[in-house]
Amino acid sequence: MKMPDFRQIIPVDQVGVEERVAKFRTRSIKKESKLFALKLALEMVDLTTLEGMDSPGKVRQLCYKALYPYEQDPDIPQVAAICVYPNRVRLAAGILKGSGIQVASVATSFPSGMGTLESRIDEVRYAVDEGADEIDMVISRWAFLKGEYAHVFDEVAAIKEACGHAHLKVILETGELQTYENVRKASDISMYAGADFIKTSTGKISPAATMPVTLVMLEAIRDFYFKTGQKIGMKPAGGIRDSKTALHYLVMVKETLGADWLTPDLFRFGASSLANDLLMQIVKQKTGHYQSPDYFSIG
Fold it and tell me: What's one GO BP annotation on this UniProt entry (predicted)?
């Protein structure tokens, strides 16, 4: 898709965004609707392990948790995906084959994005060849903050092409973008360049996902859909640890984009620690009793 002129600033009303988010936090979901929403949120989780000590055993454990979140109750759904480094993709893909759980891989010199474009493309191709269904790339924040918007557009477009059949999730690292206007502009650039999803954060920088930043990105997705007819996915990542917050995010998605986006195909949580809290709340809704956290695997 041809790059629009991104030099124009789309103003974002900070007060308005934060007031609207405050209203989302007042919404309450009860009884059967709450159980449905908790299960839906669990289906949207990307379980992630992105540490230097990611051994084959740790990846196997993560895959097992993805396949069997709570073995005592087969009615509890699986998660959407697991996310690993490229050198662990083949192992994960082999374990999860035929399960419907996607294998995502961070690439493009994650988390800094400071590699050459050639090396980043090579890393993407390697991950896809190893079996990745999704690629999570990071934009060059240094180029964006210098106003080199064509550079960012071109790198996203090139990496999208390198993904082949795999979906591309573009990480903005919103904690480094400084303003809501920058978040909006980076969202627009990524979508016009070919992103299938836009994602807040690597989880390595604070602040990570916040509801106001996510709302700015959701509104960018809405406007892009109105202009192009294309539905782009959204993934807040980092800092979402409890079910109550997750449900507020789902309310925000529904009221901003509509029910069509309430699917793992178009909305994800990058929040491994969230999974166990969702499981605890689901069991509570079904049995009337909280289960000890010790009954759920750490993942």
Answer: deoxyribonucleotide catabolic process
